[in-house]
Amino acid sequence: MAEYDLLVLNGLVVTADETGQFDIAVKDGKIAKLVPRGSLDGITANKTIDAEGGMVMPGGVDAHVHLAEPALFGKGKSADDYETGSRSAIAGGTTTLITFAPQRKTEPSLLAALAATHELAKDKCYSDYSFHLICSNAGPQAISEFAALREAGISSLKIYMTYEALQLKDSEILDVLFEARKQKIVTMIHAENGAIIDWTIKKLEEKKLFDPKYHVTSHPPVAEIEATYRAISLSSFIDVPILIVHVSSPSAAKHISDAQKRGLPIYAETCPQYLFLTRKDLDKPGFEGAKCVCSPPPREGEQDHEGIWQGLENGTFTVLSSDHCPFLYEDTTVGKKSVISAEYPNGHFKYIPNGCPGVETRMSLALSANRLKLQKFVEVTSTNAAKLYGLYPRKGGLVPGESDADLTVWYPDGMKEYQLTNSMLHHNVDHTPYEGRTIKQWPRYTILRGEVVWAKDEGGLVGKKGYGQFLQRDMSSLAGSMSKEEWNVENF
Ligand code: URP
Ligand code: ZN
Ligand code: ZN
C-alpha cells in the first residue's frame, strides 16, 4: 500500500511565512510533510504531481463572495448559485469561499437567514465554504442570536451604512458592535454614506443624467471617506475589531492606516476592481459601462490604483477579496439590462444591479500584475482571510498535521500566457470586466483536501459538485479588542 495519498514534488513552495524548494506529502486530506526538495525520493503515493519548478501555494481563501442572493443592491438577482460560483472558484485556484447569508429587513432572525442559506449551499459546492451573516435588521432578536451564531460556527457578519434594503443607523451599528465585542465576532462594514449618495443621485436626476457613468459621480470619494472614518470612530468607541470591506479610495485607506498606527484593531479589504478598473470603464458607448457598476465604484486612474497597491504592500489591507457579485448583462428581468425601459433607453444608473464577477480571476489577475512579493500575495489572498475569520491553520497555511491539503499549483514562470475571455471562465455570467487582458499565470492544478479538483491540461474541472464542505469557524486569530475588560459606559 502506498505511504501517501498524494505527493507534490519539485515546486517552489510559497506560504505567508517562507519560500523554498519543498516537496509536499498528503495523507487523509491533510498536509503530512513539507520537506526540502528530494527528501521524498523513493516514497510511494497513489498520485504524484510534478510541479516542474512552478509555484505551489495554500489554496486561495476568498472571503467576500455573493451567491444565490435576491435583489439587495438595486434590481436583479445573483447569476451564480453555490454550484456555479464554487465551480468558478476552484478553476481560479480558490479552495475556500466565505459567502453571505442575507437577513431581510422584514426578518427579525439571523438564524433563519443562516438556515435558508445552508439549504442553498448544501450538496452543491465544489469548494469548501462558510457564511458571513448580513445583518440588516439589528433588532433585539438578531442581537440575541449572536451567541447562537458562534455555536453554529459563524464568527463574522456584515453590516451596511448605505442601500435602503440594508442600511443601519449609527445607533444600530453600535448595538451590533457592542454585542459583537462580547461574542468575539468580526464585523465587516460597507462604509459609504447613504445620505450623500441619495442626495447626489437627486442632483443628477434634476439634470436628467442617467447613463451608467453617473454611478461613479453619485458615489463620490467623500461618501466613502466620511463613512470609513465614522466606522472607525464607532468601533474604537466600543473597542472592537472591524473590517472595512471593498475599499476603493486611497484617502479612505489613509484613515485606516492612521487608525492601525494608533493600535486599533481595524482591518481592511480591497478588491481587483480597485486595482484594474477606473471610472472610464463605466463610460463606454450605450449601456456597456453597466458591466462595471459596483459600489464603491472604480476611481479615477493610475494614482488611485497605486495607492491601493501600496496599501496591500504595506499591510493597510489585510485581504484582497473578489467581491464576486455576479449579474447577467443581457438579461432583461434580473440582469443589468433590467433597468432599460422606454423611459430610460440607456438605463438609469441608480437601478443598475451593483456588482462585478471576479471569483475566478482574482488570483491570476493579481499574480500577473507581478506587483506583490510572493509571500505578501499568499498573505492577502489566503492566509490573512483564514486568520481573520477563524479558519487558520486549517485553511490558509501548509502546516503539517494541521492544515487541510488545499493547494494551488501554478505553471512554471513564462510557460503560459492568456488573453482572458469570458468563455474561459466557469461562472454563470455572460461577461467579465477583464475581457481581453493579458494573464501571465493561471492555476495548473487546484487541490482540495488532497483531491485534485482542477487540472487545467487534464480535463479542466475534475472536482465533484457536493465535495465542498461547510466550515465551522472559530474566533479570529488576529488581534481583537485592546482591553480585556468588559465595556463600561462609565469609563467615558
Ligand atoms: O457593488 C458591489 N460591491 N456589490 C456587492 C454588494 C456589496 O456591497 O458588497
Ligand atoms: Zn458591500
Ligand atoms: Zn460585496
Q: What key phrases describe this protein's structure?
A:
nine-stranded mixed beta sheet, 20% strand, globular, eight-stranded parallel beta sheet, 13 helices, binds N-(aminocarbonyl)-beta-alanine, 27% helix, 492 residues, binds zinc ion, alpha/beta, 19 strands
Ligand catalogue: N-(aminocarbonyl)-beta-alanine, zinc ion
Kindly name the structural category: alpha/beta
Please work out how many helical segments DSSP would assign. 13
Low-confidence stretches: none
* Relative helix content: 25-40%
The count of β-strands is 19
Task: Please state roughly what percent of the residues sit in beta strands, choosing from under 5%, 5-15%, 15-25%, 25-35%, 35-45% or over 45%.
Answer: 15-25%
User: Main beta sheet, described?
Assistant: 9 strands, mixed
Euclidean distance between termini CA atoms: 67 Å
Radius of gyration: 22 Å
Mean pLDDT: 97
In terms of quaternary structure, the protein is single chain
Gross morphology is globular
Structure description:
Residues 55-453 form the Amidohydrolase-related domain. Belongs to the metallo-dependent hydrolases superfamily. Hydantoinase/dihydropyrimidinase family. This is Amidohydrolase-related domain-containing protein. One of its GO terms (molecular function) is hydrolase activity, acting on carbon-nitrogen (but not peptide) bonds. The modification N6-carboxylysine is found at residue 158. The strands form 3 sheets. Strands 1, 2, 3, 4, 5, 14, 17, 18 and 19 form a 9-stranded mixed β-sheet that branches. An 8-stranded parallel β-sheet has the order 6-7-8-9-10-11-12-13. With 492 residues, it is an alpha/beta fold. It has helices at residues 82-91, 110-121, 140-144, 146-151, 170-183, 194-206, 214-218, 221-238, 250-261, 273-276, 302-313, 362-368, 374-388, and strands spanning 4-14, 19-27, 30-36, 45-50, 55-58, 60-65, 94-102, 128-134, 156-160, 186-190, 242-244, 266-270, 319-320, 407-410, 418-419, 438-439, 443-448, 451-455, 460-461. The longest helix is centred in the middle third of the chain and has 18 residues, at 221-238. The chain is globular and about 75 Å long. It contains 13 helices and 19 strands. Helix content is 27%, strand content 20%. It binds N-(aminocarbonyl)-beta-alanine and zinc ion (2 copies). Residues 66, 73, 190, 246, 294-295, 323, 325, 354-355 line the site of N-(aminocarbonyl)-beta-alanine.
